[in-house]
Amino acid sequence: MSTKTSTPTPPGRPSLAMFCIAPFALSCIAAQAGTVIGHCVSTAQQLQNALTACSTGGQYNGSDNRIKLVGGLYQTRLVTNPGPGAFYYENDSDTGNLWIEGGYNSDCSARSPDPLATLLDGDSQYQVLVLRSQKAQIKVSGVTVENGESTSAGGGLAINELAQDKSASLVFDTIIRNNHTTYFGGGLYAGSDGAGNSTVVHNTLIINNSADLGIAAAELIGNGDGVSFYDNTIYGNSGPASGTDGAVYVNGSGNCDIDNNIIYHNPNGGLWASCAAGTLYFNDVTILQGGGTQQVGNVAVNPLFVDEDNGDFHLASGSPMLGFTPWLVNVNADLEGTPYPATGLQDAGCYEETLFADHFDFNNATR
Fold first, then answer.
1. Which of 25, 56, 63, 304 has CA atoms 20 to 30 A from the CA of 31?
2. 135 within 8 A of 167, measured Cβ to Cβ
3. Cβ neighbours of residue 301 closer than 8 Å, sequence gap 6 or more
4. Long-range own/partner contacts, residues 25-29 (CB < 8 A, 24 or more apart)
């Protein structure tokens, strides 16, 4: 079903702008006044119907649209119109932001912070979610994107993979797992271009994806205001032994801020960054290339997860990533809704275990 509301509070956390170094602030807060078309969907076909209505030629194209997904399983193979395949959206208009949010109850009046409540599934046959916008922002949050199969960039989730797609790309509070492509970007491809637009990935768990040509986990491009990649956990993503671009590839003509991440145990891959400028702060990572970034506080150690073999990527007692970073993000909560500390130190990765750590004075970098 679809509804209209006036002057909404946009999704996301307004205080995010406090962390994002200018010129990221405007795209990070994702705020825009006006009417938003609300869609409450609970089946795979309803999801595609909503995406079609928001796309070029659809009745809501050019307007801001928020698609709220009721918790459950959404399989690409169950779409009958236009047919089985990736959930697809294309916006050729100059206006019309799109927000896709998972975890809602049956009438979309309340929302769970757990991305495992909403599964977008390619059934190992299809790419899962393909979103394209020439100018207006795209944001995905609170979902799990899994079991995608593709011959294109982004085996699970692809945002703005074509040259004419120049909008901001935001991925928050999401799990991307068990996807594969014969191309680059096993789990995720996200790109942006144009002044005021950036690619932002935050509080995201990217695990067990693969890409035959390389960049096993995520390929992130920011040719407008750059890329912001922080508080993410990247594990078990595999690429070819001959690949040189790592598990995570970040490229931007603007700033690339890569902070507070755990990028660990990705066969044949670490981090490859090639940026005009930016930060590479307080990550647990093997740095294959950090071109253009100022590097502070990075390590390459076993983060000691609770039980990675069974999918538990919380930090175990004694993890060196507990209270690891003074680079506070100033947002409300982690991937599961656990609060971040307001002062002191925070944990690296997408799960926050340490609620408060104090008495730490960091003077080696400036915000």
1. 56
2. yes
3. 284, 320
4. 26/196, 27/137, 27/168, 27/170, 27/192, 27/196, 27/197, 27/198, 27/200, 27/225, 28/170, 28/198, 28/200, 28/228
pTM listed for this prediction: 0.88
141 is a domain residue:
yes
Q: Answer whether residue 363 is part of any domain.
A: no
Nearest to 201 by CA among 353, 350, 366, 351: 350
* One pLDDT digit (tens) per residue for the chain, 367 residues: 444 333 232 233 222 222 222 222 222 233 344 689 999 999 999 999 999 999 999 999 999 999 999 999 999 999 999 999 999 999 999 999 999 999 999 999 999 999 999 999 999 999 999 999 999 999 999 999 999 999 999 999 999 999 999 999 999 999 999 999 999 999 999 999 999 999 999 999 999 999 999 999 999 999 999 999 999 999 999 999 876 688 999 999 989 999 999 999 999 889 999 999 999 999 999 999 999 999 999 999 999 999 999 999 999 999 999 999 999 876 779 999 999 988 899 999 999 987 544 333 333 332 2
For residue 217, is it within any domain? yes
Residue 365 in any domain: the answer is: no
Q: How many CB atoms lie within 10 A of CB 68?
A: 25
Say how many domains are in the chain. 1
The identity of residue 8, as a single letter, is P
The parent domain of residue 206 ranges over: 2-315
Helices and strands, number each (H, E), in the chain? 3, 28
The bridge status of strand 2-5 relative to strand 36-41 is antiparallel
Question: Token pair 């901001």 is at which residue?
Answer: 168
